[in-house]
Amino acid sequence: MKLPIFLAAVLPVALCLCFGGCKTLSLPTGKGYTGLCQTYVGHDSSTLVDSWGPPGRTFNAPNDQKVFVYVETRDEYSMNPLAHSALIEYPPNVDGRKSGPGEVTQTVVGQSVPAMDYCITYFEVSQQNQVRKVFWKGDCKSLEKTQAK
Questions:
Q1: Residue 89 covered by a domain
Q2: pLDDT at res. 149
């Protein structure tokens, strides 16, 4: 009888000591997605295409730039906006004032909308094939990169 009482008292303490030094669990966020998009700004668009694959749609913007559009749906039952051209708008209706903390930088403007079943990302590419600006909207998340100290 004393052994179960001893285990009940010692086991939680032992587990806390074992796992107390583990890294804190991090979850994907909109800020992390902005950071991911930021890694492509200023680089050749071929780097983007090599990583993300060919865009779902491309078109010319009024300012002599190309726009690459990527859409990620939550599951196979979600409506893909690329199938409905009315849902692809440019300039995108992304309101930085409604963005969460860390979702907007000088070159990336994002707006988390968790109720959307998809994430749509627009990459503006210059005539020199350099990614200039990124807009995203929807349920877009990625792990935040930690700064090395």
A1: yes
A2: 46
